[in-house]
Amino acid sequence: MTQQQWTAVDEYLNGVLVGEDAVLTAALATSRAAGLPEIAVAPNQGKLLHLLAVTMGARRILEVGALGGYSGIWLGRALPADGRLISLEIDPKHSAVARANLHEAGLEKVAEVRTGRAVDSLAELVDDGAEPFDLVFIDADKPSNPDYFRWALKLTRPGSLIVIDNVVRGGAVADAQSTDPSVLGVRAMHELIAAEPRVTATAVQTVGLKGYDGFTLVRVIG
Ligand SMILES: C[S@@+](CC[C@H](N)C(=O)[O-])C[C@H]1O[C@@H](n2cnc3c(N)ncnc32)[C@H](O)[C@@H]1O
Asked: How much is the average pLDDT of 103-128?
């Protein structure tokens, strides 16, 4: 299998099952025009997040890593009118694009983008006694994944779902000798998850438009 084939299959799947969406297409276009990196989730992955959130009846969603708001739109659209999406982003330019795109998607009443280091924003949410989130999507700097998982556990409840993106890294995650900080971050997070009795988890490898990668899914059970 080659990247060309993975892309062709993703294009087929996106065409037949996800479909074209003017708001999402525009969100990617404005992100590109603003010079943001093209590292948002693929359409079928965004819809997976959306379906997970809808299926579990999520009312409160936390996202770590907003970029231009693409996955935020998919997640925000899963919420009821009185739901809440809080998306954390370190880069003020990314935050501004995400806010504009979430507004264009009609999600300004449910979605909020908080600018700053995610670890600080997460600590602030805990200090403020934020209500537990039903779903947390972690998709920012991978070396910080262990910290993000720890904070996510504090900000969730039994029954919540934590989804972490980019956990396979082209297969590099299986290399126990790797010195890549992102690989080390993902592996350390998996060790934490494995040792944590309050969660149960699995991970799946994915191929497609975004190459060879994967998601870890964690259900909080206690
Ligand atoms: C992969 S992108 C997020 C993509 C987005 N979830 C989507 O699919 O549309 C990662 C984002 O995390 C942000 N980021 C990186 N380090 C961060 C940190 N320490 N705190 C908060 N955000 C951070 C980056 O600026 C970038 O916008």
From this structure: 98
d(CA 208, CA 5) in angstroms, rounded, equals: 8
Q: Is 28 exposed, middle or buried (0-12, 13-18, 19+ CB in 10 A)?
A: middle
Domain count, the chain: 1
At residue 1, the pLDDT reads 76
91 lines ligand 1 (CB under 6 A): yes
Amino acid identity of residue 62, one-letter, is L
- Confirm or reject: Cβ of 213 under 6 Å from ligand 1: no
Cα–ligand 1 centroid distance for 95 (angstroms):
10
C-beta of 40 in contact with ligand 1 (< 6 A): yes
* Tokens standing for residue 218: 């964690």
CATH code of the domain in which 169 resides: 3.40.50.150
| Encoded amino acid at 215, one letter | F
116 pocket-lining for ligand 1 (C-beta < 6 Å): no
Specify the pTM.
Answer: 0.98
